[in-house]
Amino acid sequence: MSDTTPRLEIRNITRRFGGRAVVDDVSLAVMPGQVTCLLGPSGCGKSTTLRIIAGVDMQDEGTIFVDGALVCDTIFRVPPEGRSIGLMFQDFALFPHLSVADNVAFGLKGPKAARRARVEELLARVEMLRFIDDYPHELSGGEQQRVALARALAPRPGIMLMDEPFSGLDNRLRDDIRDQTLSVLKEEGAAVLLVTHEPEEAMRMADEIALMRGGRIVQQGAPYNIYNAPVDKAAAGFFSDINVIRGRVHGFLTDTPFGQFMTPAVPEDTEVEIIIRPQHLKIEFDRNGVGPAPTPENGAAARAVVDRARFMGSESLLEFRMEYDGSMLKATVPGVFLPKPGTPMWLMIRRERCFVFPATGSTQSRPAG
Ligand SMILES: Nc1ncnc2c1ncn2[C@@H]1O[C@H](COP(=O)(O)OP(=O)(O)OP(=O)(O)O)[C@@H](O)[C@H]1O
Ligand SMILES: [Mg+2]
């Protein structure tokens, strides 16, 4: 095993139910100490993938390797308990009749003193040492979650599989528990595969995101890359609200409210969708019907009228009706900015932040659950 051997690798995993491939030719590798998030809408096959890796379900095709050694193909199969895998699922039930100490010690072998030391070490790490003699019903949801994490990590699994482990917690608590969990996981050096349908959670936790849709991984990479170079409209729209500006290509150019766009890679007469996130629109005041001059990076300004403005906490969300064609565009600006409906303004778009996709073919919106 070399430094470049993934801790966990799955190759070409397919799982069918009633003839339908709910996991369809999925391949992934996770290095020790790395967190990979399997991110996608409800029903796309995330939990099924995790169950196959854990060994509680079996693939119809494909292979699974741990530290370069085969643990499962369609004939040979290491049982779940032989895979050095820690599990943490949404309904992580602690054993109600066991104390916190005994819950965490549950999967541990070896001399009593060593087991106790490991239990104390992990409870200290999740800041739960003072609850060591308590029972689960005496703990809050977040505290139980931390004990469950300690329990899953106690036997030093090489791989941690986590399926929406934070979804039962309220928002503020969730952020804290996520951050704490992440630092404990990093210290333990396990390879982590975390399932979530929340992009914010994936961005916060992941070294790498595998974006899944309809049983397939449609894009894989660092959060920054997936966010800034989505493969299609649905991938862009999974991470934030998006604006879609439609147009048709003539001579490598597309007319938009913001002037002509270069669309060189798209064939003549194709309908295209230009995608821009709301935070990448620029807003300027109207000065007696005059707007800002065109710039190479932003193109031309387009006149629009405020339709609605809402304060969202750290930013304001504005909806505009475009004078050009009556279409609606959304823009966000930091802080409080709440112009009255009907106020004329000028919009510009940061062109290097736009994504252009052909409107047909693989750009349908994401499938429903
Ligand atoms: N044992 C089964 N028999 C038949 N169909 C199944 C079985 N398990 C899962 N499926 C189907 O496979 C698809 C994927 O399910 P899966 O649980 O993997 O989705 P998911 O991505 O985890 O969704 P969610 O975010 O809602 O948890 C679903 O359409 C589901 O109905
Ligand atoms: Mg699931």
TrEMBL record:
It comes from the Bacteria. Keywords: ATP-binding, Cell membrane, Ion transport, Iron, Iron transport, Membrane, Nucleotide-binding, Transport. This is Iron(III) transport system ATP-binding protein. One of its GO terms (biological process) is quaternary ammonium group transport. One of its GO terms (cellular component) is ATP-binding cassette (ABC) transporter complex. GO terms for molecular function: ABC-type ferric iron transporter activity; ATP binding; ATP hydrolysis activity. Pfam families: ABC_tran, TOBE_2.
